[in-house]
Specification:
Blueprint lengths: L5 E3 L2 E3 L6 E6 L2 E10 L3 H18 L4 H17 L1 H12 L3 H21 L6 E4 L5 E8 L3 E5 L7 H12 L3 E5 L5 H14 L6 E3 L4 H9 L3 E7 L2 H11 L5 E5 L5 E4 L5 H13 L11 E5 L3 H13 L19 H17 L2 E4 L3 E2 L9 E2 L2 E4 L6 H4 L6 E7 L2 H9 L3 E2 L1 E5 L3 H10 L4 E4 L15 E2 L11 H6 L1 E8 L12
Parallel strand pairs: 7-8, 7-10, 8-9, 10-11, 12-13, 12-20, 13-18, 17-18, 20-21
Antiparallel strand pairs: 1-2, 3-4, 5-6, 6-23, 14-17, 15-16, 19-22
The protein binds nicotinamide-adenine-dinucleotide.
The site of nicotinamide-adenine-dinucleotide has 30 residues, from helix 7 and helix 8.
Length: 492
């Protein structure tokens, strides 16, 4: 059994408490992956102190040089893509094809941000006064707390850490307790790529660690991805210190299928969007709204295909859907299946835990579809985070859009139609951060902003150059070379 350490000030060290926690494979609970540090607030103090010291040097390293470390890291991740993906599948269950995609996203983001090291563009503008120069530039903020969930164990940390570093900040990173191995793997690669001591620090552990990372005076940015409930707590904890808080939270995403849609294509999209990562994506297509004229035709094919999905260990190449990440996540899924039935929705397929034969030692659940769902039902309103899709009927595009917008969240939405007018109207009227035409609610690329509205986010975005706005602040600079006092808005 392997014991993994925290990474603080350039050294791999144990927690002050001496306590550890176990990490087990959700497809086979007898498979112990290793034990990790169950850290305390004292470990956060050490990590923040190291990051604050390192900041004074790192902020002065020219951005193109900082970017070289990221480039080296991206290359190392690429050479180890397969082994990193296998570790990830083993610790959180999604199938290898998807964990390879997760690692690829970390490569893409790290490369993108390495490129930004030679840009980080500001503005130069003409001054309103003669012999005066006006410009703006991005400056780093200092120590950034990075708190991440388990469903994209390498991609999401890279979305935060790479832009934080290229902007000149230093980082204290706490991954979810369900996926510490991928976090260790990522930080080891940064170390190997030449990140100086203290610039990135890893502290594994639970809510106490995250709470201290949200309140510490030396922390200037808290970048959090996770549930809306915890996001709200993080926001409240960080508010008294006026920290910059970047929140990416839950989703209840909708696919709208119009009566002119290509049904085969929509079915493919809903399978991938609804059951990929066992429905445990923030962008999962957990709601499907189908025009009443094609509802029966869509359901026939969708249900038949969902029934035929092969559920199993994600390390087996034939598996199409892995387990839920943990016992508690599986219990949430089962709880919502019961709620849906009680609310009067029709359980069309699935609805049961799988615990026999090859599924006996894991947290498996059947792909599940509810039909005849009322948009007000809890299964159509609340994030389930499991392989459960709620299908509703609509009578028109306007009806579909009203249902689509009628939830607390606003991450992603999609429409299947062959009518360009409908596509553009939906694109305008759906209030989400991400929108797709003739594709499911997932499939974001790293060079466009990623994030959501309403209870999904607080106005910031990750990815693309939008991420630089989280991890830098604008400084406007005026240089007067007239040799006399020139008064803005007064002298002409
Ligand atoms: P979670 O909210 O339970 O945990 C997220 C992280 O916060 C973990 O590292 C956890 O240990 C930490 N944490 C827990 N309590 C804390 C506290 N009081 N203070 C600070 N940190 C604390 O979420 P999860 O179960 O790991 O992930 C699933 C959720 O993440 C879903 O709601 C999903 O929609 C969301 N998610 C959102 C996006 C997005 O970009 N919008 C992406 C992926 C996942």
């Amino acid at each position: 059994m392997h014991k993994y350490q925290n990474y603080i000030d350039g050294s791999w060290v144990g927690t002050h408490s001496g306590r550890t926690f176990e990490n087990r494979n959700p497809a086979d609970c007898e498979d112990l992956i290793g034990v990790f540090q169950d850290s305390t607030v004292e470990d956060v103090e050490s990590a923040v102190a190291a990051a604050a010291r390192a900041y004074e040097r790192w902020r002065l390293v020219p951005a193109p040089r900082r970017a070289e470390v990221l480039l080296a890291a991206a290359q190392l991740i690429a050479t180890r893509k397969d082994e990193l993906a296998r570790d990830m599948t083993r610790e959180m269950g999604k199938v290898l094809e998807e964990t390879r995609g997760d690692v690829q996203e970390a490569i893409d983001m790290t490369l993108f941000m390495a490129g930004e090291g030679r840009r980080l563009y500001g503005q130069t503008v003409p001054s309103e006064l003669r012999d005066k120069f006006a410009m703006s530039l991005r400056q780093p903020l200092g120590v950034c707390s990075v708190i991440t969930p388990w469903n994209f164990p390498m991609a999401i940390p890279s979305w935060k850490i790479a832009p934080a570093l290229v902007c000149g900040n230093t980082v204290v990173f706490k991954p979810a307790t369900l996926t510490p191995l991928s976090a260790v793997n990522f930080v080891k690669i940064l170390e190997e790529a030449g990140i100086p001591a203290g610039v990135v620090n890893l502290v594994t552990g639970g809510p106490d660690v995250g709470t201290r990372m949200s309140t510490h005076d030396e922390v200037k940015v808290v970048s959090f991805t996770g549930s809306t409930t915890v996001g709200r707590t993080v926001s409240q904890n960080a508010a008294p210190g006026f920290k910059k808080v970047h929140l990416e939270m839950g989703g209840k995403n909708v696919v709208m299928i119009m009566d002119d849609a290509k049904i085969d294509l929509a079915v493919e999209g809903c399978l991938w969007g609804g059951f990929g990562t066992s429905g445990q994506r923030c962008t999962a297509a957990s709601r499907v709204v189908v025009h009443e004229r094609v509802y029966e035709a869509f359901m026939r094919e969708f249900v038949a295909r969902a029934k035929s999905l092969r559920v199993g260990n994600g390390l087996d190449d034939r598996t199409q859907m892995g387990p839920s990440v943990s016992q508690s996540q599986l219990e949430t899924v089962m709880k919502y299946v019961a709620i849906g039935q009680k609310e009067g929705a029709t359980l069309v397929t699935g609805g049961h835990r799988l615990d026999k034969g090859p599924h006996a030692r894991g947290w498996f659940h059947e792909p599940t579809i509810f039909g005849d769902v009322d948009p007000k039902m809890r299964i159509a309103q609340e994030e389930i985070f499991g392989p459960v899709v709620s299908v509703m009927r609509c009578r028109s595009l306007e009806d579909a859009i009203a249902i689509g917008n009628g939830v607390a969240y606003g991450l992603s939405a999609s429409i299947y139609t062959q009518d360009i007018n409908k596509a553009f109207a939906a694109m305008r009227d759906i209030y989400t951060g991400i929108f797709y035409v003739n594709a499911p609610t997932i499939g974001a690329e790293v060079h466009l902003p990623f994030g959501g509205t309403k209870a999904t986010g607080n106005g910031h975005r990750e990815a693309g150059t939008a991420a630089l706005d989280v991890f830098s602040e604008w400084k406007s600079i005026y240089v007067d070379f007239s040799g006399k006092l020139q008064r803005a808005q007064i002298d002409t």
